[in-house]
Amino acid sequence: MFTNMYQLMNKKLYALDEKDFQIIKQLTKNSRISIRGLAKKVEMKPSSVFNRLRRIESAGIIRRYTIELNHEALGKCVMAYIFIRYDPLSKREQTEIGREILKIGNCESVLIITGEWDMIAIVRTKDVPTLSKIILDRIRKVEGVAHTLSVIVLKEMKKSDHL
User: Are 121 and 110 in contact (CB under 8 A)?
Assistant: First the structure.
């Protein structure tokens, strides 16, 4: 039987078993599924699923339930990865710069990475001129950003269940 130990800050361990992983996998497919529907999918009693789910949530393994947006339907058809090189002479920390970039409209996420580049900003906009304006007028003007390289995503293929 497959198990995984999840260690919390207070050093308590919660062992995930195969049934826990089945519950989590079903929730990644549909986070709005009812306890009864979830119980049918994993072939367990609803009360058992409810208790396991509460333990998984209490352990911090499931942080929140969310939705998946259709960005095209929202008018955000252009997705880009903006690679950012940190200015080592800057007095600002990379995390501070990342937080400032994250506040820019249309910026979904900022990742601090290793390698030739220091950060990646993931941006979604309605069109290329809007993307250009965000890069030239906003991101490149952030104190501590030395250089950027933009990569426009042609097609996004995403794994729906992350387990």
Answer: yes
Cα 88 → chain centroid:
27
- The reply to whether the predicted model has a pTM over 0.85 is no
Contact by Cβ (8 Å): 101, 84: yes
Distance CA 30, CA 42 (A): 13
**132: domain range?**
78-152
CB 112 within 8 A of CB 94: yes
52/87 same-domain check: no
68-114, pLDDT tens digit by residue? 888 888 889 999 999 999 999 999 999 999 999 999 989 999 999 99
Q: For the chain, first and last CA: distance in Å?
A: 17
Judge whether 65 lies within some domain: no
Q: How far apart are CA 36 and CA 158, in angstroms?
A: 28
